[in-house]
Amino acid sequence: MERGAEEKVIRLREVGSTNDEAYRLAKEVGVLVFVRADVQISGRGRMGRRWISEEGGLWMSGAFLKSVDRDNYKLMLGSAVVVDDVVSPLLREFGYRTELHFPNDIFVNGHKLCGILVEEKEGYVIVGIGLNVNQDEPPIPTATTLKVLTGRKYDLDALAGEIAEGIKRVYGMPFEEVFRIWRDRLATTGRCVSVWVAGGGEVKGRLVDVHPDMVLEIERDGEKLYVPAEYVLSISEI
Ligand code: BT5
């Protein structure tokens, strides 16, 4: 995606969750503001999971007014593409390739580098980016950080500004265009996955495709199954 002017991101020392701060500020100030915090004491992932947010990582959020129905999906998918665009050139020179996993995780060498949480509250779509950057050690064994991979330290304000600017641009794009870019980049397509479906248990099969109405097409023993993304609790490769 194209580049424009970097956004200013408000830096806070320690918060519960930047998603809550971004929402509070958007309501109070009435304009879109991005915030980042050095530390989150109750950083969260999807479905109540915990997100470890110690110093050195980039923990940032922005709260957008929801104007059309699919703004949430547009921001959910588009922000992953934006972060991927920002980090992949930094990693490429060290011989690493990023992988986008459904719906918006970024992995390198099988380890999670970035997770994204999109929440909705009273007309707002809140996008939270968790990117492991300057931590010397991965927060958990299944994770990685830019520093662990490259040995370098990165400017968090500059990364935050680039990401904020990119997400703002995505917000102004049509859903179909964002979806197409995301789907072309999704590494999970064609792979064998285990999908936990709300109210439906585990489905194992090959992820054939994700359709623009956000329905997953899964092939299991020659049979096609269609699972709407909102019912997907988790998806992992097998
Ligand atoms: C996510 O959830 O991947 C979304 C994470 C979003 C975090 C950002 S930080 C800024 C904003 N403010 C917040 O409070 N949240 C957002 P999920 O797919 O549910 O993944 C959670 C799982 O990832 C956990 O159960 C752990 O296994 C793993 N995990 C926890 N902390 C991690 C970290 N720092 N790096 C990599 N993996 C982590």
How would you sum up this structure, described in words?
With 238 residues, the chain is α+β, with helices and mostly antiparallel strands. It has 2 domains: 184 residues, BirA Bifunctional Protein, domain 2 (2-Layer Sandwich), CATH 3.30.930; 46 residues, SH3 type barrels (Roll). It is built from 5 helices and 12 strands. The chain has a 7-stranded mixed sheet. Strands 11-10-9-8-12 form a 5-stranded antiparallel sheet, with no helix packed on it. Helix 2 runs antiparallel to helix 4 and helix 2 crosses helix 5. Biotinyl-5-AMP binds next to helix 1, strand 3, strand 6 and strand 7.
SSE layout:
Layout: E1 9-15, H1 18-29, E2 34-40, E3 58-65, H2 71-92, E4 98-101, E5 105-108, E6 111-121, E7 124-131, H3 146-150, H4 156-171, H5 175-185, E8 192-197, E9 201-211, E10 215-220, E11 223-228, E12 232-237
Parallel strand pairs: 1-2
Antiparallel strand pairs: 2-3, 3-7, 4-5, 5-6, 6-7, 8-9, 8-12, 9-10, 10-11
Helix pairs in contact: 2-4, 2-5
The structure holds biotinyl-5-AMP.
Biotinyl-5-AMP is lined by residues 17-19, 40, 43-46, 49-53, 59-61, 105, 112, 115-117, 128-130, 132, 139-140, 143.
For this entry, give a set of tags.
238 residues; alpha+beta; BirA Bifunctional Protein, domain 2; SH3 type barrels; 2 domains; seven-stranded mixed β-sheet; 12 strands; 28% helix; binds biotinyl-5-AMP
Radius of gyration: 17 Å
CATH top level of the largest domain? Alpha Beta
The count of strands amounts to 12
Cα(first) to Cα(last) distance is: 32 Å
Structural class: alpha+beta
Bound molecules: biotinyl-5-AMP
The largest β sheet comes out as: 7 strands, mixed
Q: Spans of 5+ residues with little confidence (pLDDT < 50)?
A: none
The fraction of residues assigned to DSSP E strands is 35-45%
One letter per element, helices H and strands E, the order comes to: EHEEHEEEEHHHEEEEE
Tell the overall outline: globular
Fraction of helical residues: 25-40%
How do the strands line up in the largest sheet?
1-2-3-7-6-5-4
Count of domains:
2
